[in-house]
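Tutorial handout. Part one gives the primary structure; part two gives the three-dimensional structure as C-alpha coordinates.
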Amino acid sequence: MNGATRSGALGEADHLARVPDVNAPDGMVLPRTLGSMLFNVPNHATHHRSEIATMLTMVSDSPTETGLNTYHWEKAKQQAGR
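Part two.
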Protein backbone atom coordinates (compact mmCIF):
# COMPACT_ATOMS: atom_id res chain seq x y z
CA MET A 1 0.00 0.00 0.00
CA ASN A 2 1.31 3.45 -0.91
CA GLY A 3 0.98 6.62 1.14
CA ALA A 4 1.44 7.65 4.74
CA THR A 5 0.81 5.20 7.55
CA ARG A 6 0.92 7.62 10.50
CA SER A 7 -1.36 6.92 13.43
CA GLY A 8 -4.31 9.19 14.17
CA ALA A 9 -8.00 9.64 13.51
CA LEU A 10 -9.36 8.36 10.20
CA GLY A 11 -10.80 11.78 9.40
CA GLU A 12 -7.45 13.55 9.44
CA ALA A 13 -6.52 15.06 6.09
CA ASP A 14 -3.31 13.06 5.74
CA HIS A 15 -5.27 9.79 6.06
CA LEU A 16 -7.87 10.85 3.50
CA ALA A 17 -5.10 11.73 1.05
CA ARG A 18 -3.54 8.24 1.26
CA VAL A 19 -3.48 6.44 -2.07
CA PRO A 20 -3.91 2.68 -1.59
CA ASP A 21 -3.77 0.52 -4.71
CA VAL A 22 -7.22 -0.79 -5.63
CA ASN A 23 -7.52 -3.90 -7.79
CA ALA A 24 -10.27 -3.49 -10.39
CA PRO A 25 -12.28 -6.54 -11.56
CA ASP A 26 -10.29 -6.60 -14.83
CA GLY A 27 -6.99 -6.81 -12.92
CA MET A 28 -5.91 -3.19 -13.39
CA VAL A 29 -4.45 -1.45 -10.36
CA LEU A 30 -6.26 1.83 -9.84
CA PRO A 31 -4.73 4.37 -7.47
CA ARG A 32 -7.54 6.09 -5.54
CA THR A 33 -7.36 8.37 -2.53
CA LEU A 34 -9.04 7.06 0.59
CA GLY A 35 -11.15 10.22 0.60
CA SER A 36 -12.53 9.54 -2.89
CA MET A 37 -13.31 5.92 -1.96
CA LEU A 38 -15.20 7.03 1.17
CA PHE A 39 -17.09 9.63 -0.87
CA ASN A 40 -18.25 6.85 -3.20
CA VAL A 41 -20.07 4.93 -0.42
CA PRO A 42 -23.10 7.25 -0.01
CA ASN A 43 -22.96 8.13 -3.69
CA HIS A 44 -23.26 4.47 -4.71
CA ALA A 45 -26.00 3.86 -2.13
CA THR A 46 -27.98 6.71 -3.70
CA HIS A 47 -27.57 5.03 -7.08
CA HIS A 48 -29.11 1.79 -5.77
CA ARG A 49 -31.89 3.65 -3.96
CA SER A 50 -32.85 5.36 -7.22
CA GLU A 51 -32.85 2.01 -9.04
CA ILE A 52 -35.25 0.59 -6.45
CA ALA A 53 -37.46 3.69 -6.68
CA THR A 54 -37.56 3.30 -10.47
CA MET A 55 -38.57 -0.38 -10.19
CA LEU A 56 -41.32 0.46 -7.70
CA THR A 57 -42.60 3.22 -9.98
CA MET A 58 -42.70 0.75 -12.89
CA VAL A 59 -44.87 -1.76 -10.99
CA SER A 60 -47.02 0.64 -8.98
CA ASP A 61 -47.00 4.30 -8.04
CA SER A 62 -44.03 6.44 -7.07
CA PRO A 63 -42.58 5.43 -3.70
CA THR A 64 -42.72 7.77 -0.75
CA GLU A 65 -39.80 10.04 0.04
CA THR A 66 -36.68 7.98 0.79
CA GLY A 67 -34.26 10.65 2.01
CA LEU A 68 -32.36 10.45 5.28
CA ASN A 69 -34.08 13.56 6.65
CA THR A 70 -37.49 11.95 6.08
CA TYR A 71 -36.32 8.80 7.88
CA HIS A 72 -35.21 10.78 10.93
CA TRP A 73 -38.43 12.86 10.90
CA GLU A 74 -40.62 9.73 10.83
CA LYS A 75 -38.52 8.04 13.52
CA ALA A 76 -38.81 11.09 15.79
CA LYS A 77 -42.59 11.17 15.28
CA GLN A 78 -42.83 7.47 16.21
CA GLN A 79 -40.79 7.99 19.34
CA ALA A 80 -42.98 10.95 20.28
CA GLY A 81 -46.08 8.77 19.85
CA ARG A 82 -47.53 10.68 16.91
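Part three, for discussion. Confidence is low (pLDDT under 50) at residues 1-7. The longest helix spans residues 34-59.
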